[in-house]
Amino acid sequence: MIVTLLTDFGDEDGFVGAMRGVLLGRAPGAVLADLAHHVPPGDVVKAARVLRRAAPCFPPGTVHLVVVDPGVGSDRRPLALRAGGHVFVGPDNGVLIEAAEALGGVTEARALTERSLWRGTPSRTFHGRDVFAPVAGALAAGLPLEAVGSPVDDWVRLDAPRPVRDPGGVWRGRVVEVDRYGNLITDLPPLPGPLRLEIAGVAVQGPSPAYAAVPAEALLVVVGSEGTLEVAVRDGSAAARLGARAGTPVACFTPDLPPSSAP
C-alpha cells in the first residue's frame, strides 16, 4: 500500500520522521511517498493545490495523509474520506476536497471519532503524529473506512473565487499560485487563437508554445501543466519582474477587444 505525505513541517525538526515512524508501526509494509514538506506554514490553499496536482498521479488504493493544520488543537474536525478509490486523511479545513473532486468527488467521509485508533492521548500541537498518522497507517494496513468514526456530509470547502467573463467579453481572474521558478499560475482558461494578458499594468501577448519560444528574460504566456494560463519569464521570475503574487488580478483579451486601463 502507498501512503503519500504532504505537510508544512519542513525537514529540519524531525516532525515528518515521527509521522513516518508511526505510519510504519501501523503498516510495516507501506511504501511512503513524500509530496511536499515545504508548503508555506499554514497555507491550506497552497497545500490543496499541491494535493490536487499530485494525487491523481497515484494508483487507486493510495492513502493520502495531509497535515497542513493551522487549527490544530481547536475544535476543527479530523477527517478521512474516499474519492476515486483513494483515501484522504487530514484536517477538515478544505485541504482535501479539491483533490477528491479531481478524482470524481467524495463518496464517503468520516470524522475520526474512534479514539482507540489514535496514539495515546494526543498532543494539542501534533495531531499529525498522534491522530492522522496512526489512522492513515491503520487504513493502509486494511482497516475499513467505516471503522475510523462517524459519517459526515458537511465537510469544509475552500471558498476560492472563480474567473468570470464580463459583459464586454473580457475574462477576469487572478494569480492562484507562484511556483518556485516565479511563474504566475492563473485560474484563467486558455482561449482559442491569440490573446493578450494584462497583469500588474503590463500586457503580454500569447500564448507561446514553450518557454524556449521567446528570448531570454522575455515575458511570455503559456498554457501550464494544469490547463490554465501562466505568465512566465524565460530564465527569470515573472513574480519578481511584475511584483505579482497570489491574488493579483489578471485580465485576458482577444484581439478584437481594446486594452483595459486596469487588469
Q: What share of the residues lie within helices?
A: 10-25%
Task: Please give the largest β-sheet.
Answer: 8 strands, antiparallel
CATH fold node name of the largest domain: Rossmann fold
Name the beta content range: 25-35%
Give the tally of β-strands. Answer: 14
Please give the CATH class of the largest domain: Alpha Beta
> How many domains would you count in the coordinates?
2
Q: Decide which structural class fits the backbone.
A: alpha+beta
The coarse overall form would be elongated
- CA-based gyration radius: 21 Å
Specify the number of helices.
5
Order of helices and strands: EHEHEEEHEHEEEEEEEHE
At the fourth level of CATH, the homologous superfamily of the largest domain is S-adenosyl-l-methionine hydroxide adenosyltransferase, N-terminal
Task: Let me know the average pLDDT.
Answer: 94
Q: Tell me the CATH architecture of the largest domain.
A: 3-Layer(aba) Sandwich
How far apart are the first and last residues' alpha carbons, in Å? 47 Å
- Uncertain runs: none
Describe this structure in words.
By secondary structure, the chain is of the alpha+beta class. It has two domains: 2-148, S-adenosyl-l-methionine hydroxide adenosyltransferase, N-terminal (Rossmann fold), CATH 3.40.50.10790; 164-253, Bacterial fluorinating enzyme like (Elongation Factor Tu (Ef-tu), domain 3, Beta Barrel). It contains five helices and 14 strands. The strands form two sheets. Strands 7, 8, 9, 10, 11, 12, 13 and 14 form an eight-stranded antiparallel sheet that branches. A hairpin with a 5-residue loop joins β12 (219-223) and β13. α1 packs parallel to α4 (127-140). The longest helix is centred in the middle third of the chain and has 14 residues, at 127-140. It is elongated. The termini are far apart. 41% of the residues are buried. The model has no long low-confidence stretch (mean pLDDT 94).
